[in-house]
Amino acid sequence: MIRIVSACALAGIVLLAAQDVSPRAQTVPAQGAKEIAKQREDLMKGIYRGYYRDMSQAAKGEGDAKLAATKATEAVAQLKKFATLFPPGSGREGAPDTRAKPEVWTKRAEFDAALDSLVKETTAFGEAAAAGNADAMKASWAKVAEACGGCHGGPSKSGGKFRFEE
Length: 166
Ligand code: HEC
Fold this sequence. Notes:
The protein is mainly α and 166 residues long.
């Protein structure tokens, strides 16, 4: 696993080096890149605590389904904002601490599809919660968790397709 991750990191460095020879007209200045990377890091850090935790509780039958439905709607708004926080130049070339992998930019269609899938599953969860359908919530929650895995592993330090391991 470590080997695979470092191979990915190496591939990333090669990609970054390759990007250096291309015109940088569209890239954000380093300072802006760091700020925007911080915004998306904070958003992701807060997304479980702020929204998905209540959904997870409700899925287990321990929480408030109506609250979970509201949280699902709010989470979708957060995810739509997240999508706007990846301007070119805001990978490690501009924001050295970011955990976003170069693949976010080189495989943007796949990244967008992974995000769309989380939006879709979160919306479905919200509908199940609004209807107070416990079975549908449970089934839907499993798909939400799976959709997080489209970009990275579960534990917060884990890596994945679009996130460097910490
Ligand atoms: C479309 C891809 C994508 C999906 C889906 C996704 N994430 Fe993330 N996540 C990222 C990226 C990229 C980062 C690294 C951001 C950075 O450092 O700039 C990240 C970082 C994180 C972090 C670490 C923040 C930090 O300290 O750096 C947490 C926690 C997290 N995500 C939770 C979740 C949860 C929970 C879900 C599902 C509800 C989820 N993510 C779904 C792309 C995604």
